[in-house]
Amino acid sequence: MTAPKTRYFDSNATTSVAPEVLQSMLPYFTENWGNPSSPYRLGKKLVEPIELARESAAALIGADSSEVIFTSCGTESINTAITSCLYSQPAKKHIVTTAVEHSATKNSCAALAGRGYAVTYLPVNRDGSLDLGLFEASLRPDTAVVSIMWANNETGVLFPIAQIAAICRKRKILVHTDAVQIPGKLTIDVNELGVDLLSLSAHKFHGPKGVGLLYVRKGTPFWPLIIGGHQEEGNRGGTENVPYIVAFGRAAELARAISTQSRQKLAALRDSLENEIFSKIPGTSRNGAREPRLPNTTSISFTGVDAEALLMMFDQLGICASSGSACTTGSVAPSHVLTAMQLNPTEARSTIRFSLDYETTPEDVAFLMSHLPRLITELRSAASPRTAARLTSSKPALAAQAM
Asked: Which of 103, 203, 243, 376 has the fewest CB atoms inside 10 Å of its own CB, making it the most exposed?
């Protein structure tokens, strides 16, 4: 049996490796396979490609290349940032974060709490936004770091990182942001943003899995997480993953080249999907504020539907979507992001995240919508015929009010 064509709506989980990125990697698996730390030409000639990739990565975020540390992934970058702020300021024992962070931050902070550090988890409003007054009130003389994501990976909701950084700067508190979801979707300028540390991961913007970036502003105290050799100016031990670092640089070039018009078209396609869902399927609602958010992301709750069952039906049709973060898939617990936004467990378990990409087409959306209303009706009828009948008789316009 021929597998159906893949219709991909899960770009916040990962993206395909761009052909240009793959081509940039290949020579470093074959003829240019040496160790950059070696004294002979086979190794020494790899130093320049690494530094060119560093310059490209720095240009993506408006930084100096000396402020860029290559890592293995976003999770390592996040862990390094948080622990560095703590270990380089041993008198400070307090961390401020939010209740809706990615598991890389959430679980890192939980582990540090088990080692005696104090952690404040800021709540969010029903629309996923932060209360800046509450944030400022949470800061203490012993706050070592504020680690808050720029864009939520499940809802796309954006946090006011520049305002947060300005508040912290007055208090001389270090600020880290998980910006993993941002490249290619918004412009990044670390100087305008004002953060001290920032984390990225290449596979979120058409690079390979296995390489990330940590930006550390000049003058910021730094304590390596991985201790070893002199690599990365002593900031991260371990032989450089040359093919993947080169790939990061090429992916960064491609992300920088994405135009404002392309971003607007992506947002329009996302909005078209939302509008069709709200107009054709009663009992639906968006999770999170309409704006500000990423141009590609929407989180939709379908009353009376088990999201995991819907995803299995999607898979049979070649449709890829998610019920939340890829790093929590398989957990029986409802999304911590959605429960923090005051959804009850049933509502949280009825939620699907659709995250589009520049490769997503109107035809992909049309294919999804040619099946989605029927699938929702089938699942609701199987779960509760009475609820299904009530929702089916509802006017679609009522559902559209969630917009």
From this structure: 103
DSSP bridge partners of 355:
10, 297
Tokens of 206: 């058409």
Report the alpha-carbon distance of residue 161 to residue 24 in Å, rounded. Answer: 33
Distance CA 336, CA 345 (A): 10
What pLDDT is stored for residue 399 in this prediction? 38
* H, E, C per residue of 148-182: CCCECCCCCEECCHHHHHHHHHHHCCEEEEECCCC
pTM (2 decimals)?
Answer: 0.93
The distance of Cα 276 from the centroid of its chain, to the nearest Å, equals 25
Secondary structure element (H or E) that encloses residue 247, with its range: helix 242-256
Query: Given the DSSP bridges, would you call strands 212-216 and 68-71 parallel, antiparallel or unpaired?
Result: antiparallel
Nearest to 289, CA basis, from 160, 397, 180, 385: 160
pLDDT, the chain, mean: 94
Q: Cite the active site residues.
A: 327
> Six-digit token pair at 134?
């509450």
Token pair 């932060």 is found at 130
Q: Return the axis-axis angle of helices 307-317 and 362-383, rounded to nearest 10°.
A: 130
Task: Indicate the pLDDT class of residue 333, thresholds 50, 70 and 90.
Answer: confident
pLDDT tens digits, 200-243: 999 999 999 999 999 999 999 999 999 999 999 999 999 999 99
Q: What is the pLDDT of residues 95-153, one digit of tens each?
A: 999 999 999 999 999 999 999 999 999 999 999 999 999 999 999 999 999 999 999 99
**What residue type is 383 in one-letter code?**
A
- CA-nearest of 12, 14, 17, 10 to 250 is 17
Cβ atoms of residues 249 and 25 within 8 Å: no
Q: Compute CA distances 303 → 219, 271, 288, 381, 383, whole Å.
A: 51, 20, 16, 12, 11
Is it the case that residue 296 has pLDDT exceeding 90?
yes
**403 pLDDT band (50/70/90 cuts)?**
very low
Q: Is the dihedral of CA 285, 289, 290, 294 positive or negative?
A: negative
- Angle of CA points 200, 99, 121, to nearest 5°: 105
Mean pLDDT value of segment 60-76:
98
Place of tokens 């490796």: 17
